[in-house]
Design brief:
By secondary structure, the chain is of the alpha+beta class. The chain contains 13 helices and nine strands. The radius of gyration is 27 Å and the shape is elongated.
Length: 349
């Protein structure tokens, strides 16, 4: 039998679904088929007639937790990270939802051939692929939230891999609810935190500080999926420099007002500034540029101007910093969390 094209989903209730006990490998899904008739124009009239029967391979999720209410909520919702719910039917007091063919469960894929190394560095960093997966999941949650829908079973066990060549995660939603009153931030975003934490736990690697800050940002006051895409997770020195330039190019009044909430300030240690920073301040003072070490904004402004006019610095500073990229690394020694502290409050201005 020929296969029905996927763009003809969802199935009509008149289609026949063939259930089976054949379970997908390492998965709680079952294989099945949908039999349907192809609708073609009639040669004798303007009406249509049904011709050849087609079979479409499908998968079926079974369980007492699967309710028609959830199916009705999301069956018309489309998102690249959401597994389409094609049909629903009850049997033996259990709900059964029909879905397209999926790849392996995320758990199986994660451990298979050490695929976790595609997501997590041995130093606890997060790769761009993992970052993309988390952004995709967050985008699904955000879009559903915009439609007043909250996923109730967003966890490690309901993640699957799309049946594609490149790794892409998808979410099978079998429990969801419509809400009239806004749910708490914890209810919305904690499941995403737990998915990331589970991944690190499974490979017995501790999250890097950058990843901890990245995850902590999800669900905060200034969080959106758009802002998460720009988060300082895998920034190179050039991006960090451009970020500093963009801050000062924005409204000075606005940035100054928000600086107090960032926690970024002159990096005094035992009442003293780092030697090289103090020398940089004195050099600027001697040349008519005063930076007040009691003003937070002046610290960022000094970093910005030093980066922007690095080639005009005396040779002593150029060698001490080791170039523009070296200067950015020294700034991170002075203020280890500077990019996250600034971004959490200000974002890209």
């Amino acid at each position: 039998m020929a296969s029905k094209d996927e763009n003809e989903f969802p199935f009509k209730s008149a289609d026949k679904i063939e259930d089976s006990t054949e379970r997908a490998k390492d998965s709680k899904l079952f294989f099945g088929k949908c039999f349907t008739n192809m609708k073609v124009p009639s040669e004798s009239s303007e009406e249509y007639c049904f011709m050849d029967e087609y079979s479409v391979p499908i998968m079926i999720k079974k369980g007492s937790e699967i309710k028609k209410e959830t199916y009705d909520l999301i069956r018309d919702f489309q998102h690249n990270t959401l597994v389409p719910n094609l049909n629903f039917y009850p049997e033996s007091n259990h709900g059964r939802v029909v879905i397209p063919i999926l790849g392996a469960s995320f758990e199986t894929w994660f451990h298979e051939k050490n695929n976790w190394k595609l997501l997590i560095g041995e130093d606890g960093s997060m790769t761009r692929l993992f970052d993309t997966m988390i952004i995709d999941i967050c985008d699904l949650v955000e879009k559903l939230y915009g439609n007043l829908i909250l996923i109730k079973n967003l966890d490690w066990n309901n993640l699957y891999m799309a049946e594609e060549i490149a790794p892409r995660v998808v979410v099978l939603v079998t429990e969801a609810e419509s809400f009239a009153h806004e749910p708490s931030k914890i209810a919305i975003w904690k499941p995403v935190h737990e998915i990331v934490e589970r991944c690190y736990k499974e490979c017995n690697i501790k999250m890097s500080n950058e990843v901890c800050r990245y995850i902590s940002f999800i669900g905060t006051t200034h969080f959106t999926v758009k802002s998460l895409k720009g988060y300082p997770l895998n920034w190179d020195s050039y991006t960090k420099g451009e970020y500093i330039l963009s801050l000062i190019s924005a409204s000075k009044k606005s940035i100054t007002k928000r600086m107090g909430k960032t926690g970024v300030s002159w990096p005094y240690r035992d009442g003293k500034l780092p030697v090289l920073l103090n020398e940089l301040v004195e050099h600027n003072t001697d040349n008519g540029w005063d930076y007040l070490t009691s003003v937070r904004f002046d610290y960022i402004n000094l970093i910005r101007n030093t980066y922007k006019h690095f080639n005009k610095l005396p040779q002593y500073f150029k060698q001490s910093f080791g170039g523009e990229q070296g200067f950015i690394r020294v700034v991170e020694q002075w203020s280890p969390n500077i990019w996250q502290d600034l971004y959490d409050e200000i974002g890209w201005p």
